[in-house]
């Protein structure tokens, strides 16, 4: 068996049209724009309208990534999500069918905010083994549908959105994907059995996120034969700005190297890294040949990191129903 390397061939992202500002939330919660910004770095977020599903966002982001890659199909489809349309079955087969790919293997990945990196490891593995030549990886979330509207600790943080990449054969662009988990912390980020709303223990999560993201980022760099000085851009999961900044300091990276879109979209969970990359590519903040360090932490507990040499692609970034 010949093992193959993997590269990103296309990237896309889709956001809901509805913008929810901090002032909108402050009108019904005991909070303010200043309080939210100072603790999270978030100014607004996008939430879906009633009737819009996670799969709707996934299909749009997937179509955009395929268009970016100059193709209309892939050999496999992976969807990373915490908010599937239903608990059973997985949404990936439905998303694949809506994109015209009936018959291809399709499955979901559930690793909460680390979902994109877990899915990327899956995609790279399929290509490395020869099971697929191209994989469409989508991360999509409608976290607004599982937020307690009266919980100030979570309602102000999360947004909805989807990001996608087409991964294909190629040498050297996607580095080793380093993943980890610790189930003893499962209660820190959860939707309790039989309940509707998402719960998070903020202080404990903050400490664990900074520690785990810093450690796994250094591990991914070492396995790729790199050091922090080789990094052009840090693409951290957009948990909140204080976590992102703390990780950058631990790694010795200048603030100017930290990519962020928190101010406009909030924490989009599994979708945050691909949405961030699509946005940064579309706005020229990252360019072909730049070396990117992507790192995430999420429920499970889970964490992961990898390095990317950014490809020469045109990102397709837009609003659901537009373009």
From TrEMBL:
Superkingdom, natural source: Bacteria
Domain Beta-ketoacyl-[acyl-carrier-protein] synthase III N-terminal: 108-183
Pathway given in the UniProt record: Lipid metabolism; fatty acid biosynthesis
Subcellular location: Cytoplasm
Beta-ketoacyl-[acyl-carrier-protein] synthase III C-terminal domain span: 221-310
GO BP terms: fatty acid biosynthetic process; secondary metabolite biosynthetic process
Organism per entry: Saccharothrix texasensis
Record-given protein name: Beta-ketoacyl-[acyl-carrier-protein] synthase III
Enzyme class of the recorded protein, top EC level: transferase
Keyword Transcription: no
Functional description taken from the UniProt entry: Catalyzes the condensation reaction of fatty acid synthesis by the addition to an acyl acceptor of two carbons from malonyl-ACP. Catalyzes the first condensation reaction which initiates fatty acid synthesis and may therefore play a role in governing the total rate of fatty acid production. Possesses both acetoacetyl-ACP synthase and acetyl transacylase activities. Its substrate specificity determines the biosynthesis of branched-chain and/or straight-chain of fatty acids.
């Amino acid at each position: 068996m010949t093992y193959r390397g993997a590269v990103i061939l296309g990237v896309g992202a889709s956001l809901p049209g509805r913008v929810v500002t901090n002032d909108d939330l402050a009108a019904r919660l005991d909070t303010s724009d200043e309080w939210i910004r100072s603790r999270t770095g978030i100014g607004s977020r996008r939430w879906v309208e009633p009737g819009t599903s996670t799969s709707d966002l996934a299909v749009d982001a997937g179509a955009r990534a395929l268009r970016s890659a100059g193709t209309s199909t892939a050999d496999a489809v992976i969807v990373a999500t915490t908010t599937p349309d239903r608990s059973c079955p997985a949404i990936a087969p439905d998303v694949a069918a809506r994109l015209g790919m009936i018959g291809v293997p399709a499955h979901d990945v559930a690793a909460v905010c680390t979902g994109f990196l877990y899915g990327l490891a899956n995609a790279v593995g399929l290509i490395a083994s020869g099971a697929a030549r191209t994989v469409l990886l989508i991360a999509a979330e409608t976290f607004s549908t599982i937020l307690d509207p009266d919980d100030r600790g979570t309602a102000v943080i999360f947004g909805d959105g989807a990001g996608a990449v087409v991964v294909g054969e190629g040498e050297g662009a996607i580095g080793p994907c380093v993943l980890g988990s610790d189930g003893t912390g499962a209660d820190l980020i959860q939707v309790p059995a039989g309940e509707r709303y998402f719960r998070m223990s903020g202080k404990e999560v903050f400490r664990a996120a900074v520690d785990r993201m810093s450690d796994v980022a250094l591990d991914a760099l070492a396995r790729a034969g790199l050091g922090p000085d080789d990094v052009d851009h840090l693409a951290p999961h957009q948990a909140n700005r204080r976590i992102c900044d703390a990780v950058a300091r631990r790694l010795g990276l200048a603030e100017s190297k930290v990519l962020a879109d928190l101010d406009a979209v909030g924490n989009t969970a599994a979708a945050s890294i691909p949405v961030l990359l699509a946005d940064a590519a579309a706005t020229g903040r990252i360019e072909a040949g730049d070396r990117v360090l992507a790192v995430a932490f999420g429920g499970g507990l889970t964490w992961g990191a990898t390095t990317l040499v950014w490809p020469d692609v045109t990102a397709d970034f837009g609003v659901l129903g537009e373009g």
